[in-house]
């Protein structure tokens, strides 16, 4: 039995299986090393501290691992914190990772079929259809489990598909509202973050690949589009340029990693669809992980503010 993070109570012993979201060695004021952890399960996350035995315990687990933890729940700054007494990797078959790791609410199969529906409804251009078919075939397995990001937003199993679907749904609405090129907008929405599938090594470890570090998901995405479209006989160059423009401008401005500012209505729509979905997800994540009674969360570096939580019921 695993004590779920959401249900942990201060001043009590706890034990359970969690995933190591982040792991850092830090120094106490007395210059003694300790391990600073963020542990998570499907219900939330908690800060954990390993004060003792650091030298011995540190090499036994890594970021991204699932661990069995026994500890004592304390409160620090109005938040639960776990003083870790025992921590070890589970034995083979001791625990099913899918019951621990946070994942998208909707099942991958359901999201996948919604995405296929959106294509069917909106994409008529034969070249774009063929490109989508090939890439979705190629990446189906990965896309059904991949997280949206290592840390910033949708960083759980199935997060990338959830984000892709949401961005596509918002883009569909915007294409109707503003009479955009639907083929292009929907295809761009589905493929805008495809490079993320080669940016990290595995959906759980989230360790970056060489390409991920050196190129980043936008350039990787451009390469994927170019390579695959070259395999489709007669794929029009101008169509590839327009689609590529959506991918390289989707972060909206240079400061956030865009290589061009959005220069078409379709690119502008995709950028805002991407922006609102990633921001909403960050808001949701912060609110979900807020514990204690304060009416505001801690300051969050990702959005440069704290959030109002209102009265807690
Ligand atoms: Fe992106
Ligand atoms: Fe995105």
Question: What would you say this structure looks like, in words?
Answer:
The mean pLDDT is 94. The chain has two domains: 5-98, Beta Barrel (OB fold (Dihydrolipoamide Acetyltransferase, E2P)); 103-285, Hypothetical protein af1432, CATH 1.10.3210. α2 runs parallel beside α4 (159-177) and α5 crosses α8 (237-249). The protein is elongated, with a radius of gyration of 22 Å. It has a five-stranded mixed beta barrel. The chain has helices at 54-57, 108-122, 126-143, 159-177, 182-191, 210-214, 216-230, 237-249, 265-288, and strands at residues 13-27, 33-41, 44-50, 66-76, 79-88. It is of the alpha+beta class and 313 residues long. The longest helix has 24 residues, at 265-288. The protein is built from nine helices and five strands. The site of one fe (ii) ion has 5 residues, from α4.
What's the structural blueprint in terms of helices and strands?
Blueprint: E1 13-27, E2 33-41, E3 44-50, H1 54-57, E4 66-76, E5 79-88, H2 108-122, H3 126-143, H4 159-177, H5 182-191, H6 210-214, H7 216-230, H8 237-249, H9 265-288
Parallel strand pairs: 3-5
Antiparallel strand pairs: 1-2, 1-4, 2-3, 4-5
Helix pairs in contact: 2-4, 2-5, 4-5, 4-9, 5-8, 5-9, 7-8, 8-9
Which term fits the overall shape? elongated
Order of SSEs, N→C? Answer: EEEHEEHHHHHHHH
The tally of beta strands, per DSSP, is: 5
The distinct ligands, each listed once, are: fe (ii) ion
| CATH structural architecture of the largest domain | Orthogonal Bundle
How much of the polypeptide forms β-strand, as a percent range?
Answer: 15-25%
Strand line-up of the largest beta sheet: 1-2-3-5-4
Total of DSSP H or I helical runs spanning 4+ residues: 9
Using only C-alpha atoms, the radius of gyration works out to 22 Å
Structural category is alpha+beta
Task: State the distance separating the first and last CA atoms.
Answer: 28 Å
* Helix fraction by DSSP (H/I, runs of at least 4): 25-40%
- Total discrete domains: 2
Q: In this structure, how is the largest beta sheet organized?
A: 5 strands, mixed, barrel
What is the CATH topology classification name of the largest domain? Hypothetical protein af1432
Low-pLDDT sequence parts: none
Name of the level-1 CATH class of the largest domain: Mainly Alpha
Average pLDDT across residues?
94
